[in-house]
């Protein structure tokens, strides 16, 4: 194996280990030494590639954020193009937002489950939520909010932004996969079944946005 390939695989191993640790323990419960041990590398190598812990945390978070942004924006542009000159339905916009995240083969990969755990942690954190979520996702989210404003011209900006806040909160809790749904439903619903919850969330969130558009 070439030296460059070894470096790349070791960097990926560090990022994968960081993702798993941060998802399970949060930022404060993790050390670089823990991450290096799980990655099978010396802690000096983690420092060399990523610097301090907060820099590794941010790079770990950004790695898959770019992929999610592309998936969602591609889905949104596809539904806008399909509508051509006519109005895009609220349901199509919400579907474009949720479908790439909650369906697909990537859900079977442990790395994606860990990353979703990181998103749930960051989005509910006063220390990280405002800055890291904004830096990672706001340009894509702004495009969705613009589409919702176009689809709901009668809705106030307050209603649209609070509506998005509700959507973001529901998705954050879904990403956390805490097992709360399993307990409440006495095993009838599984919190790890994101695909099973996908249409439920699309229907619920769509109805909420359509309601605020009628005020």
Structure description:
The protein is mainly alpha-helical and 215 residues long. The protein folds into two domains: 1-51, Homeodomain-like (Arc Repressor Mutant, subunit A), CATH 1.10.10.60; 62-212, Tetracycline Repressor, domain 2. It is 76% helix and 0% strand. It contains ten helices and no strands. The chain has helices at residues 3-25, 32-39, 43-50, 53-83, 90-102, 110-123, 129-151, 157-176, 180-184, 194-212.
Pairing-aware structural class of the strands and helices?
A: mainly alpha
CATH fold-type name of the largest domain: Tetracycline Repressor, domain 2
Radius of gyration: 19 Å
Distance between the termini: 63 Å
Q: Which of globular, elongated, flat, extended, rod-shaped describes the shape?
A: globular
Q: Mind telling me which CATH architecture of the largest domain this is?
A: Orthogonal Bundle
CATH superfamily of the largest domain: Tetracycline Repressor, domain 2
The major pleated sheet works out as: none
* Average pLDDT taken over every residue: 91
- Helix percent band: over 70%
CATH class value of the largest domain: Mainly Alpha
Instruction: Report the order of strands and helices.
Output: HHHHHHHHHH
Q: Which residue ranges are poorly predicted, with pLDDT under 50 across at least 5 consecutive positions? A: none
Structurally, the number of domains stands at 2
Fraction of residues in β-strands: under 5%
Secondary structure tally: strands: 0
Count of helix runs:
10
